[in-house]
Amino acid sequence: MAYTLTSKSQVTVPKAIRDHLRVAPGDAVDFRIVADGSVRVEPTRLPGRSEQRRLSAAKARFDKLRGSGGQSGQARTDELMRLLRGYDEDAADPGFAAPAPGTRRR
User: Would you kindly state where each structural domain of the chain is located, as residue ranges?
Assistant: First the structure.
């Protein structure tokens, strides 16, 4: 499909391509001219960007708990800490392994 440049020589990157590159608003991309004359678009992996995403994920976990302090059926402390610290997101890390059912962390 063809896209038209704006008066400022801009074009919108189609959603399918943004999804494929895993880029979002605010992310940087590189344009490279390939030997055959085509142009290659690649995401720029800036230092600290993964840290930003990790912090966003942690904030999202915290936001899930906001206002739940006094509700009935409140989660146990271990469940809250697992959610807040993201233990379930890094199963490869032995320090984050969930305790066996019926056991407690110390």
Answer: 12-46, 58-67+74-91
Encoded tokens for 19: 């999804």
- 3-state SS string over the chain? CCCCCCCCCCCCCCHHHHHHHCCCCCCCEEEEECCCCCEEEEECCCCCHHHHHHHHHHHHHHHHHCCCCCCCCCCCHHHHHHHHHCHHHCCCCHHHCCCCCCCCCC
Highest mean pLDDT among 14-18, 60-64, 78-82: 14-18
- In the beta sheet, which residues pair with residue 30? 42
- Write the class of the CATH domain 12-46: mainly beta
More confident residue, 27 or 100: 27
Q: How far apart are CA 47 and CA 50, in angstroms?
A: 7
* Residue/partner pairs of 36-41 with CB below 8 Å, 24 or more apart: 41/13, 41/17
Token code pair at residue 56: 């966003």
Q: Is the whole model's pTM more than 0.70, yes or no? A: no
